[in-house]
Amino acid sequence: MNVQPQYSPDGGSISFVSTGGRAELLALADWR
Amino acid sequence: MRAQSALLLIAAIAVAEVWPVTSPTAQARARPVTVDDLMALATINDVEIAPAGDRVAYTVSTPALETNTHDTRLFVLPIGGGTPTRLAADVRVFLPALPAPRVRWSPDGAAISSLGMDNGRPQVFAVSPAGGPAWVVTAAPEGVSGYEWSPDGTKLAFLAREPASPPTVANRAGSLPPATRLWVQDADAAATARALTSTDRFVDSLSWKPGGDEIAYSSSPTSGFMARPIPRASTPSPATGAPRDRSSIARA
Questions:
Q1: B218/A25 touch (CB, cutoff 8 Å), yes or no
Q2: Within 13 Å and on the Cβ side, how many CA atoms surround B143?
Q3: Model pTM?
Q4: Which of A5, A23, A29 lies closest to B207 in CB terms?
Q5: What ipTM does this complex have?
Q6: Which of chain A's residues have a Cβ under 8 Å away from the Cβ of B225?
Q7: pLDDT in tens, A8-32
Q8: Chain A: residue nearest B220 by CA?
Q9: Do B214 and A27 touch (CB under 8 A)?
Q10: A11 and B209: CB-CB below 8 Å?
């Protein structure tokens, strides 16, 4: 898939490589 | 710009090692390039600048025909140039089939990490930039395919495949391999890892939020490649813009 998510330095946005909807991009908050 | 300068510096060093400046006598012996020449070429696979911007860590790989592998070596170099220092010489650095950066600095710059083989599996190892023995950080039974330090350097998040049970039928059509899950553990080598995702999803990449309280990751219910027929007269889609299904010949 190689989505390669990457947060911006301020954490306000995430860049990623689109796979045309074949993968999901998820954010796991409070992972602790 | 700083990253470009580091790349140019390392590239110049690598080229100089392989193709020293030729004398007129050497030019007179010019000959066609051979397969042996190509096999002697060194390739820089990974370049990572230290958090403080003062050093750069990188790996150099050369084919090893005797073992049918690549011999990959880890180095660190002052950002302004100088003599590279080889690190973790006793570790067999793991070079994934798909080129992807695996070298990382710990956020405080006290360690350089990468993937290296340990008991036949790629694991995260770390070494001081000053040299000395490397230590293995993870102990994933099926090995680690990707990882990232937490922003505060106290944790590692990594991707590892779920251990497989012994197959009863080899290569069963349509069967999926064990899931690749997202794990997290203390950066302490003796720490136990904890899975954060389920066993029915394949996670392939991750990113820590700068505050360390959130992890973004991509996942899919399937794994591997799936070939699709494409029309004979089809033309490739541009690299950007809305993807067109007929241009897709594989999915991963």
A1: yes
A2: 13
A3: 0.76
A4: A5
A5: 0.90
A6: none
A7: 999 999 898 887 777 888 888 878 8
A8: A23
A9: yes
A10: yes
